[in-house]
Amino acid sequence: MKNTKHRQIIRRTIEARISGRVLPIIGSLALALFQSLEVGAGEPARTRDASGSAAPSTLTIQVDETVAKVSPILHGLMTEEINYSYDGGLYAELIRNRAFLDSATNEPVHWSVANQSGAEGRIRIVATHPLTDKLPNSLEVEVKAAGAGRNLRVINDGYWGIPVKPSTTYHASFYVRGDTPTKNRKTGKEEGTRFEGPLAVSLENADGTIVFAHAETPAVNRHWQKIDLTLATGADVKPTGEGRFVISAANTGKFWLSLVSLFPPTFHDRPNGFRVDIMEKLAAMKPNFIRLPGGNYVEGNTLWERFDWKATIGPLPFRAGHPSCWSYRSTDGMGLLEFMGWCEDLGAQPVLAVFAGYSLKQQCVEPGPLLEPYVQDALDEIEFLTGDAKTTYWGAQRARCGHAEPCKLTYVEVGNEDYFDKSGNYDARYTQFHDAIKAKYPQLQLIATSREAKTRTPDLYDDHSYRNPDAFYKDLQHYDKEDRKGPKVFVGEWATREGSPTPNFLGALGDAAWMTSMERNSDLIVMHCYAPLFVNVNPGGMQWKTDLIGYNNLESYGSPAYYAQVMFANHIGNVTPKSAFAGATNVFLPYSVTRQTQTGKLYLKVVNPGATSQTVNIELKGVTGIQEGKSITLRATDPTDTNSITEPTKVVPVTETLKAVASSFGYAFPPWSITVLEMTAK
Q1: pLDDT (average), residues 43-63
Q2: What total number of domains does the chain contain?
Q3: 279: domain range?
């Protein structure tokens, strides 16, 4: 029977709600559609006209009548160090535990030693030969027996393996110093052995039987020296995510390693930069802004584990790193200026979150004198980013770090999710930050993270929403009722939580419906960004499910929800025309419509979250003509369909020519679909 499978799917979801289980689909809307599917031979119930024919819904758009302006920076990105988003993800570093600080017990985690053909030796972490005061640990390698064909091999396994690709040049670097004999004060004799290089560096397969690339260092001496090498793979190399990085020694004695690093080619060839495939996916989203350095990552679990921006600038040997909020250590290789480089590479402006005196474990700084150092730290941070290199102290420090020109900064967010602060003092803390920042930088727009900030009126409030599809569908008019006379809104974190590790198509439908609401209210909502943005899909890589983009060390993919974001961000106008939807019985399709006044392009976005096609009569008023355009459709054959590492393009948009358009035309929106209709209206 036609639509039998669809009826069974929806019936199961409704029965799940009745039995008390979690409903993964669309609640009351699903129930209405299920009832309609039970009518006749699987045809949807519709209002009938006098002749008995089905009467489709009607969407009327008054093209020449504008009801609101669209925010020019509506769509953006938010990220933080969660799910190995930076280390092991966007940040392209391939060596894990590169500074030997990842273990509280000083175990050499992710490092091992292998003896070849009778070589003997061991490794351990010591603090006797610090590279800098920020990187006190080094890896001591003791070679007890070695020689020609008998190498001691020190191995790093990377983030779930080292990715190796053909015809690729990798940049390896590390600091090394060798042992020298010392004189015994009593006997006057030298004790110990002198270690003399060189060392061999290679990329190999998991068991060391295949060498993909190889290089040698100069001779090692008794002082710390930085080694820089290139490792180039051949065209015949088969891509693998199970490689390993190896430093080999054929001489006896001891040597020490610090800050061992391996980078593949980076996006725009930026030093200490970003992974190419992930950046290409972000560029396709055309983000107008990036909220940084993140949410909980700003606060830290304790005051001492917050994002201390001053500890993230300057050369890597002077960045100690710090514990993140999610049970692993951040290298701080992706520091404040790297965040700025990220924005510049994507043509996006930063939305800077400053630490506001509150940490996740309810450590809160009292407003007043105790808070003042943190306020000053925020002022220093703003000066570092925007200050003139010749006339300001922190602007000069930025220039010394290699970024001579000031960064563009418009928005500063004071804290993150301070509505969780049980002390109730965010209003006073926000007031102290507000007064200090506005006094020195009156042009900046300030964002409050809690609506408890009332003593001083912020420019924007930051709203966060994590929901299931049903909750988003029921709340599509949330911002329609918001006061337009108060502060604007930044929806700084939101997501439809359906699917793991990335959203399935149910999640994409909920996201798209919510985005139609935000677009329709973009005179009030200045910016929005989905969260979390990234997840490493390897075992142990995920701390929070339902994330926009998934990856392992070799490949990445966009979820269906990712493609919904791409569709919305790439097809948007600058004004919202007047429109009205007259739905048939039990039918409402979330939609938004915007127009680009300079080109005349009209963008209609429609979400059909149901199991049957829905035909809509589209009436375009106030136009003299319509040019044919295109349709972009994201759909699934089953609402639980999703993308993955093994099926990265199972659900992707399809673009077709939109023909036979006129001032009045009908369009059938497929079941379980997100559609963008692009036309040019004269």
Answers
A1: 60
A2: 3
A3: 77-92+269-525+539-570
